[in-house]
Amino acid sequence: MGFLRATTQVLWISKYFTKIRLPTSKPIVVHVDDNGSISHSLNDKNHRRTKHIDVRYHFIKNQVKCGNITFQYIPSSENVADLFTKFLSQEKICQFTTEFQLQLTTEGILDQGEC
Predict the structure, then answer these.
(1) Residue 92 needs a FRET pair 20 to 30 A away by CA distance; which of 36, 43, 84, 109 works?
(2) Distances (CA, A) of 63 to 2, 15, 29, 43, 73
(3) Beta bridge partners of 70
(4) pLDDT for 31-83, tens place per residue?
(5) Do residue 58 and residue 6 come from a single domain?
(6) What is the 3-state secondary structure (H, E, C) of 3-56?
(7) Which residue range is the domain that position 49 belongs to?
(8) Do 15 and 68 have their domain in common?
(9) Could you tell me if 9 and 47 are in contact, meaning their C-beta atoms sit under 8 angstroms apart?
(10) How many domains, in total, are found in the chain?
(11) Domain co-membership, 22 together with 64
């Protein structure tokens, strides 16, 4: 379900940006940590192991084929989006907030100066 949600959200944001005159370049690159799903989105062939896949997931293949979106592998350990979706160690929180250029200012979460 994650690939479908990411695809629809990215396309919606792209259309929104175009409406407010901030066009995006195509294809839009989405970083993911699932090689199997990336391979499936690129593969037009269906076989007995993929015949159970719901028709709505073919939407992703179509968007990749049309050049609207592409998926690029990124290891989980380097995926900064995990900051918003997973429980992480303090070390990872500090690393990702630095990459996002964020500052942790809420008292009680981290002492000042730890990141």
Answers:
(1) 36
(2) 15, 14, 12, 13, 17
(3) 29
(4) 888 888 788 777 766 655 555 566 666 788 889 889 999 999 988 778 777 77
(5) yes
(6) HHHHHHHHHHHHHHHHHCCCCCCCCEEEEECCHHHHHHHHCCCCCCCCCCCCHH
(7) 2-74
(8) yes
(9) no
(10) 2
(11) yes
